[in-house]
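Reviewer 2 asked us to include a model.

Predict the structure of this chain.
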Amino acid sequence: MGAKRMMSFETERLTMTIIGREDVGGVFETMNSRAAAEAVSFLHWPVTVNQAENWCRRSVDGVKSGREYLYLARERSEAVPAGCVGIHRTEEEGTAEMGYWVAESARGKDYGTEMALAAIDIASNRPCIRKLAATTAIDNRASQKILEKCGFRFSRITLVRQADGTERPSNLYVRELNDEPSRRDLSTEARRRKQRDR
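Predicted model (structure tokens):
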């Protein structure tokens, strides 16, 4: 995957762009809900603009280091912020972690699945990434369903550090990557969505 493709691309319904410092407003819009703050380990409620600014700085630094790619997803139809998804290299060789959240105003549209499949596609095209991991709260069944739909398998219970310093028991999911990118998964999900909408 070329550098240009890494920075910006489109899915069936979303435009995905690497987060820059100018995206504070859009990022804040996606994370500014109690549900997002409770689901995402590094957020705390009430969410502040400073938290969004920190995420934007982290994105810029991540691209420079090549260790993580953080995307802001917008609805292609109206350019409204729909959520964020990221791929983060871990200390384990060949493994990256995927994380995502959906804006409160965009829930119920299955954007989480679309963003996750796009992230898998990106990771599949990176030779240095052979496995993706993702964690979710034990009681967050909606997120677990997204991961399972995207080919992740439950691995074990792990502890995830929260913004307040506590550790939360969470489900760890993993997906092995092969040489074939997940565009087939994206197209299959698009066909299923069209059939449901008929």
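Helices lie at 3-7, 24-31, 34-39, 49-65, 111-124, 141-149, 183-197. Strands lie at 8-10, 14-18, 68-75, 81-89, 95-102, 131-137, 153-161, 167-176. We have added this to the supplementary material.
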